[in-house]
Amino acid sequence: MKRTIINLCLTAFFSVCLTGCSNDFLDLEPTDSLLEDEVFESYVTASSALIGVYDQLGSPVFEGLYNPIMGDIMGEDLMINSVDNWNWFVEVYQMNMLPNYSYVDNPWRAGYKLIYDTNKIIDNAAFIPDATAEEADRLEGEARVLRAYAMLRLARMYSPAYSKDPDAPSILLNTDSETTENAFERASLREVYAQIESDLLIAVNQLSEQGDKGFFDKRSARAVLARVYLDMQQWDKARDMAKLAYKGLSLMTIGQMYEGFHTRNAETIFAIAYTREDNNVYLSLPSFYWPVGGYSSMRANNDFVNIFSNADARKNFFLRIDEIDPDRHLIVKFGHNAQVGNAERISIRAAEMLLIEAECETELGNFTAAQDALYLVQRRSNPGVLKSVATGQELLEEVLLERRKELFGEGFRWYDIKRRQLPFVRTGDHWAVLSFMASDPDYYRLTFPIPQSEIDANEALDNSDQNTGY
User: Fold this and answer.
1) How far apart are CA 469 and CA 389, in angstroms?
2) Each residue of 271-305: b (16+ CB within 10 Å) or e?
3) Which of 172, 176, 141 lies closest to 155, judged by CA?
4) Closest among 228, 225, 220 to 155, alpha carbons compared
5) Distance between CA atoms of 391 and 397, rounded to whole angstroms?
């Protein structure tokens, strides 16, 4: 009988290992696995299982490498080098994906394994015999944010933009850990985002703010909510959540920026641990970005580099070294922490929240507030910059440009183009040139196909349920 990928997870419940982070309420030894009926016998084993889910989040085929890399090379600013790319991400950069490619299949499988395991925690946390109410809430709340984070990532990858059609088919929606169903239809974007919003709102009430930013808390739950509301174009809610998410935080200094974005700092809201003890050192962001020590195959488009003024400290993230690459700019934003592959990924930070605030205030017509939020980000990298006096569409374009400059390499550009239905135009020294508008047939390339393995396994799906263009 055919079985969905979600239900395949029934045979592999909770691969548990520590991520290299420390949590102030846990002191656990890593284990290879836990039997399902043992996981919720104690708070310690349930907490260990939760840490295993965080480890899944940082997997190289999900948030550890695939998603942030693909989120930028499916844009116009960054690329995989045309030579010495080791055949990594070539089809993704060319935007020539097929439903049976590993770049399509692996994130889907990883995302649904994570979702299945969080379903188990959410459904059982309240019944752990030795857990206090606060401890149960913490387990459930963090699991809800993890589930929402994974669902949002999958929805953005495998669905059209919410702003284009909230009733369009999206991903599979399964939040029941006890289901024996072998068939799941694609839910609508509206249904998926409603579930994500619900999880995050519940989590905000269950969680407090904690010092270890390697784990989700109230602040980071609000930050993910800001992203959700931004996709939905609920500008007032996105602004409010973003402001709460960065409240009390300071932006990193220029010196901290130059340290290599490999470890959390005062600006960090959530960081994904990725250390050489836990992972393949070559399947890490610094391995692909840093000019030496790894694959070192990421490059910046010349046109993108040229939009940075010479007074902008971020321009120093780009280097021309003829001995390494005589044609394109190297990128030194993401460094190794002493050893190859030893680097956290700062997944959510205050600058992003300020830029969400600026975009939302612009859309709401609150131009002074938008200018103020934008200026806080700009002046960090260029203390002499003048505050914008633009309004309306001109101000919006300034904010979106600042998102490109501030967040490049962090996995945002693909989704920004898609959610705003912007033209996709690659020029300059790109070796895969593409150009299309939101109204053009080729715009389907900004949405991944549903994996063929899912269509083959899922009794509720057939090839007619595949995304447009595939």
Assistant:
1) 42
2) bbbbbbebbebbbbbbbbbbeeebbbbbbbbbebb
3) 172
4) 228
5) 10
pLDDT at 275: 66
Distance CA 159, CA 31 (A): 36
Q: Which domains does the chain have, with CATH numbers?
A: 5-465 (1.25.40.390)
Q: What is the pLDDT of residues 200-240, one digit of tens each?
A: 999 999 999 999 999 999 999 999 999 999 999 999 999 99
Contact between 458 and 469 (Cβ < 8 Å): no
pLDDT tens, position by position, 433-449: 999 999 999 999 999 99
Give pLDDT < 50 ranges for the chain: 1-33
The answer to whether 449 touches 467, Cβ cutoff 8 Å, is yes
Cβ–Cβ contacts within 10 Å for residue 235, how many? 20
Radius of gyration of the chain (CA): 21
Per the CB < 8 A criterion, the answer to whether 329 and 300 are in contact is yes
Residues 6 or more apart whose Cβ sits within 8 Å of residue 338: none
Give buried/exposed letters for 107-126 (b at 16+ CB in 10 A, else e).
Answer: bbbbbbbbbbbbbbbbbbbe
Residue partners of 361: CB distance under 8 A and separation at least 6: 235, 239, 367, 369, 370, 373
Measured distance CA(267)–CA(250) in Å, rounded: 6
Specify the pLDDT at position 179.
Answer: 75
Two tokens at 270?
């959530």
Q: Kindly report the pTM of this predicted structure.
A: 0.93
Calculate ∠ Cα 149-152-156, nearest 5°.
Answer: 145
Q: How far, in Å, are 85, 140, 397 from residue 97 at the CA level?
A: 17, 36, 30
Which residues contact residue 215 at a Cβ distance below 8 angstroms, ignoring those fewer than 6 apart?
21, 23, 54, 142
Question: 139: closest CA among 63, 206, 219?
Answer: 206
Q: Is the dihedral of CA 251, 256, 261, 266 positive or negative?
A: negative
